[in-house]
Write a structure and sequence with these properties.
CATH superfamily: Ribonuclease P/MRP, subunit p29
CATH architecture: Roll
CATH class: Mainly Beta
Strand order of the largest sheet: 4-3-2-1-5-6
Distance between the termini: 17 Å
Strand content: 35-45%
Structural class: mainly beta
Shape: globular
Helix content: under 10%
Number of helices: 1
Largest sheet: 6 strands, antiparallel
Radius of gyration: 12 Å
Oligomer: single chain
Number of strands: 6
Order of helices and strands: EEEEEEH
């Protein structure tokens, strides 16, 4: 993905599925993004467990739009990514 194709919207509240991950236990993990930092996503699954995933080690799909995103393209603070800095 080029810099212009970075996901420009708020991720918190989005349902995602991890499609590729460096850690095999993260692959296939499904849940809602509850928080985002510069390098991590906090994902809550259907039973309320929260898992912290490193953006640079995962590729995930947004359930609603079916858009697949490489986490390493999002390594910026959310407010910087949304404003396009």
């Amino acid at each position: 993905m080029s810099r212009e194709q970075v996901y420009p919207y708020e991720l918190i509240g989005q349902e995602i599925i991890v499609v590729r991950a460096a850690n095999k236990f993260d692959q296939g993990f499904k849940g809602k993004i509850v928080d985002e930092t510069k390098s991590t996503l906090l994902i809550e699954d259907e039973v309320g467990r929260v898992r912290k995933l490193l953006k640079n080690t995962i590729t995930f799909k947004i359930v609603q739009t079916r858009q697949e995103i490489e986490g390493k393209t999002l390594i910026r603070r959310p407010e910087e990514r949304i404003k396009g800095k």
